[in-house]
Design a protein that fits this description.
Radius of gyration of chain A: 21 Å
Protein name (chain A): Cytochrome d ubiquinol oxidase subunit II
Shape of chain A: globular
Number of domains of chain A: 1
Order of helices and strands of chain A: HHHHHHEEHHHHHEEH
Strand order of the largest sheet of chain B: 1-2
Number of helices of chain B: 14
Organism (chain A): Winogradskyella rapida
Radius of gyration of chain B: 23 Å
Distance between the termini of chain A: 49 Å
Number of strands of chain A: 4
Membrane topology (chain A): Multi-pass membrane protein
Helix content of chain B: over 70%
Family (chain A): Belongs to the cytochrome ubiquinol oxidase subunit 2 family.
Strand order of the largest sheet of chain A: 1-2
Subcellular location (chain A): Cell membrane
Order of helices and strands of chain B: HHHHHEEHHHHEEHHHHEEH
Largest sheet of chain A: 2 strands, antiparallel
Oligomer: heterodimer
Distance between the termini of chain B: 61 Å
Strand content of chain B: 5-15%
Largest interface: A-B, 67 and 69 residues
């Protein structure tokens, strides 16, 4: 039962990253590449009717985490207190930037909310990458000092950074050079992803330029990914252990790299949705590979005293998990119906929707 | 430790109070928009569709505010109340996860279609999307109140040796006797808010002699919805909620009503007075004899336990706060019934649109349902203190063990700053939409 809910949760989080990821990416493109009003309009049209529903995947994932793995929810949310609060504030800024921009027709008003939307999208992509880095690196569970736990073994607290910025320090910070590297990968990957979505959903003049951007950033991404794989060896002595015992898991890195290499052909794609498909494959494969690598850990311990949190020692009780399957299956069927309807009504190019005009 | 508990409670209280300004209008207004759209489908009169479209603009703005201030609520269970989440997550996580899966997906998927899809969908399907948004928002309220009810009156659980709460009966979460009265009471409260907003904006138009056709429609609709909901919020729903409190939380009931001593021969109902907790009495009291006994037990001389019958360790932590919250809610509720009744009589006599003093009153009453709803929630929440799960888990035992008070104060200050900005923006933009007024079909 734990395993079922673990797969459900990971799937939901991956869907969230792929869906809200293109919103963040579109925001970054908006910040750096959209100079003309027409281009900005195209970008907000492309994500307008979707972003709110996409964000629900985050909330729903949080709900499933809370209900199925309450100990992990309690431990990680209190331990990552400050970055989570900042993510909340950024989500608020981003949302009001998008929703309020069109309410008043004034150049200054519009440029303020453009910046709010763009900068918070950029920082969110960075923060989510850093968050992934923290989960991979692990934390000082039980807040061990001088060989003694100062708290219950599943609780911890991390400041934003420590003075050394090192993932090897005894008292870790959220941001160190390793997690920052994953943050940058997050920004680059989601920028590519967002650009692909804009190409997919609009006929904007920006599209030709964006194809070049995707191509160039893709080279950067490839280098960063290779570097991070080497560094991973320093952090975690046996990162490929699971892949050796279960060779079928190689399918995930394979998917990730086929997405990554496929994108180098971005300029010759006939169908506009192809780029988006490839960047989605990269995100899916990359996240699944990470999960496969640390399985069954959900939050590794960096000290020798307290054990890792695994999906088995953080789960709720059997009865609750079983009864949840009934309502969850019904809910998933409904969600699939809603999304089919939504994407059907708003299929094709979004240039004429007129999002945010009042 | 004391500081930590204080800042954690302040942050939750501040963020939930601010958040609930928006959903109460969302839930009530979605019902009224669906009503306007339905009237349009039946009558084919453009004014109903124009009215629906006008309120959809306010709704969209309000909904966005509700979403962005709602996400921090779910996060805070884990960030600030980690111990509570760890211990009870297997139970309250059920209803909260269901809220995400059932109502948020429903609302958010169809809101986009509702706001931008009128031309693409045609009027009938457009009505349907509006109805689904309404359904989603009410389902959300239902599941939140199911969670709330479990904290007030825990059912279907077992406590393990390590202190964890384990769900043993899923159905009990929904057959909880606390749930249905509280849900209906709360929903009627939100319909009151939307009725006063719609009627208040209508009165504003009539008094300004602009958009008069819509002014009349809004005042009329607001008054009819307002009268029905103001009555229903008191009876039977409010009455049933109070009976749950007197039965299951008698000490809370005594504190709410300001009864320090059990009275022989029936309890009076306190209208006004200031509780003096140290000397255990009510100063400057105005009260009517025997009414409380009658309202509670339908018998003039029924005995109601006063605070003197309970051990002080069981007292709600903030008796004056609880007492005032409850009395403000009840006082405002009574005024709402009176005002809406008067307005409805004038409407029936076809004189309402000319009775300017009622129109002025309707306009100025617009903020008060927000206060009544907020103090109603304060009554429920302060009434449960010092318990997080009634009689089982203390609030002080639920906070996150590793988050320092300095960090919580930092984020509390951050939320205060951010929400002041949000509040100002909301008022400015809502004012702009209202001042511009509805557009008629001919203008399009």
């Amino acid at each position: 039962m734990e395993l079922f809910w673990y797969i459900v949760l990971m799937t939901m989080l991956t869907i969230y990253v792929i869906l809200d990821g293109y919103d963040f990416g579109a925001g970054i493109i908006h910040l750096f590449f959209a100079k003309k009003e027409k281009d900005k309009k195209a970008i907000t049209n492309a994500i307008g009717p979707f972003w709110d529903a996409n964000e629900v995947w985050l909330i729903a994932s949080g709900g499933v985490l809370f209900f199925a793995f309450p100990t992990l929810y309690a431990s990680s949310f209190s331990g990552f207190y400050l970055p989570l609060m900042m993510i909340l504030w950024l989500l608020i800024f981003r949302a009001i930037g998008l929703e309020l921009r069109g309410q008043v027709h004034n150049k200054m008003w519009e440029s303020i909310w453009d910046k709010a939307f763009g900068i918070s999208s950029l920082l969110l992509a960075l923060f989510f990458g850093i968050a992934l880095g923290n989960v991979v690196r692990g934390v000082n569970l039980g807040m061990v000092t001088d060989g003694v736990s100062t708290h219950e073994p599943h609780y911890f607290f991390l400041p934003l950074w420590n003075s050394s910025f090192s993932p090897h320090a005894e008292h870790l910070g959220i941001i160190d050079w390793f997690t920052l590297l994953l943050g940058v990968i997050g920004v680059v990957a989601l920028t590519i992803h967002g650009a692909n979505w804009i190409i997919f959903k609009t006929n904007s003049d920006l599209n030709e330029k964006l194809k070049k951007v995707v191509f160039n950033l893709n080279s950067v991404l490839l280098i960063l990914v290779v570097v991070s794989l080497f560094i991973w060896h320093i952090i975690e002595p046996k990162p490929f252990h699971n892949f050796i015992t279960h060779p079928w898991l190689w399918i995930f890195p394979l998917i990730a790299f086929s997405g990554l290499f496929g994108l180098f052909k971005v300029k010759s794609f006939q169908k506009h949705g192809m780029g988006f498909l490839f960047s989605s494959l990269f995100l899916f494969g990359g996240l699944a590979s990470t999960v496969a690598s640390i399985f069954p850990k959900v939050l590794p311990s960096t000290n020798a005293i307290n054990p890792d949190l695994t999906l088995y020692n953080v789960a709720a009780h059997e009865y609750g998990l079983s009864v949840g399957v009934y309502w969850f299956v019904i809910a998933v069927i409904l969600v699939i119906i809603y999304f089919t309807i939504q994407y059907r009504v708003f299929k094709g190019k979004m240039d004429d929707v007129g999002y945010g005009e009042h | 430790m004391e500081d930590m508990l204080f800042y954690d409670r302040m942050q939750f209280a501040f963020t939930i109070t601010f958040h609930y300004i928006f959903p109460q209008l969302t839930m009530g207004l979605s019902l009224m928009i669906v009503y306007f759209k339905w009237k349009f489908l039946r009558s084919k009169l453009d004014k109903y569709n124009d009215a629906a479209k006008f309120w959809m603009k306010i709704f969209a703005l309000n909904f966005a505010m509700g979403v962005v201030t709602g996400i921090p609520m779910e996060f805070q269970f884990g960030t600030n109340w980690a111990k509570f989440s760890e211990l009870t997550g297997g139970i309250i996580g059920q209803t909260l996860a269901m809220e995400g899966m059932f109502s948020f997906f429903l609302e958010s998927s169809f809101l986009g279609l509702f706001l931008f899809g009128e031309k693409l969908l045609g009027h009938k399907l457009h009505f349907l999307t509006g109805f689904l948004v309404f359904l989603g928002s009410w389902a959300s309220g239902y599941l939140i109140i199911a969670t709330h009810s479990w904290m007030q009156y825990p059912v279907g659980y077992e406590i393990l040796e390590n202190g964890r709460y384990v769900l043993t009966n899923f159905g009990a979460l929904f057959s909880n006797p606390w749930l249905l009265p509280s849900f209906l009471h709360n929903q009627m409260g939100s319909v009151i808010t939307s009725s006063f907003v719609v009627a208040g904006v209508g009165a504003f138009y009539l008094l300004n002699n602009k958009h008069s056709e819509f002014g009349k429609l809004f005042v009329k609709t607001g008054v009819i919805f307002g009268l029905v909901s103001s009555v229903l919020v008191a009876f039977p729903t409010g009455d049933l909620v109070a009976k749950n409190v007197v039965k299951h939380q008698p000490v809370t009931f005594a504190a709410m009503e300001g009864i320090f001593e059990t009275e022989k021969g029936g309890s009076e109902i306190v209208l006004i007075g200031q509780p003096d907790v140290v000397n255990k009495k009510l100063d400057n009291k105005i009260a009517v004899p025997n009414i409380l006994s009658f309202l509670t037990y339908q018998s003039w001389d029924a005995e109601i336990k006063g605070l003197n019958e309970f051990d002080e360790s069981l007292y709600p932590t903030n008796i004056p706060g609880l007492y005032y919250a409850y009395h403000i809610m009840v006082g405002l509720g009574t005024i709402f019934i009176g005002l809406m009744l008067l307005a409805a009589v004038q409407l029936y006599r076809k004189k309402l649109y000319q009775t300017t003093w009622i129109l002025w009153t309707l306009m100025f009453m617009l903020p008060f349902p927000y206060i009544a709803n907020t103090t109603g929630w304060y009554t429920a929440e302060l009434g449960r203190q010092p318990w997080l799960v009634y009689n089982l888990l203390k609030t002080s035992e639920g906070i996150s063990p590793t988050v320092s008070s300095g960090n919580t104060l930092f984020t509390l200050l951050g939320f205060i700053g951010l929400y002041i900005l949000l509040g100002l923006l909301f008022l400015m933009l809502a004012g702009k939409i209202i001042n511009k007024g509805p557009e008629t079909a001919q203008q399009h």
